Amino acid sequence: MVIRLIILDFGGTLAEGSINWDEYHSSIHEYLRGLGFNVDLNELKGAISAALRLLERVRSREEELTLEEVYAHALSKLGIPESPEILEGIHGLFRRHFKTELYPCVERTLESLFRRYRLAVISNTMSDNPRVFLNQTGLNRYFDLVVCSRDLGIRKPNPKIFQHVLGRLGVEAKEAVHVGDEPETDLQGAQRTGIKAVLVDKGGRTQDWSGPTIRSICQLPEVIEELSRADP
What we know:
Number of strands: 8
Radius of gyration: 19 Å
CATH architecture of the largest domain: 3-Layer(aba) Sandwich
Mean pLDDT: 96
Order of helices and strands: EEHHHHEHEHEHHEHEEH
CATH superfamily of the largest domain: HAD superfamily/HAD-like
Number of domains: 2
Strand order of the largest sheet: 5-4-1-6-7-8
CATH class of the largest domain: Alpha Beta
């Protein structure tokens, strides 16, 4: 098969991300009090929990909200008027509290693939953290396009997010490979779009996938080479 484009998931594929939600929400509480809003911490956490439940309902439809939309919903429950400046401050706190660590081999793998293929990222996230991280580390130089689900209001496995990338880059589905660690979003989304998929199964836990599988991103160039040699 002729491969022109490799689409990569971000979290769980290229990097590991984590956040202490209690610390993050406490920092929002301090931030709001600093702005003059006398908000009870428990009431704030309750409003945020309700907003996150709304997010899950939206995501169950393969749609996405932005972090700003989620926290605007929470603040409205507390009578705090919607303000782009306040919401950007809350997003900034999220970026500060969210820890991202690249997996081994990532830069070497990207450098190898970049020589022969176009590269893109599709990440399911309400934040812009993947794009910010790639920009800050300089890894954005390898990618033609970085798409976060918040950008479009849709998320994997919705085929529209894959089709958006294909359309932007002028590539047909049969010329693309998607690489990710989540069977329900990455594999199903790629298959529904007609894109070949590669599973990153770090723990060897996925039993019902017979397609190409790697344990580490380090193995990806070899698997892509095998797919390139395969019959169409």
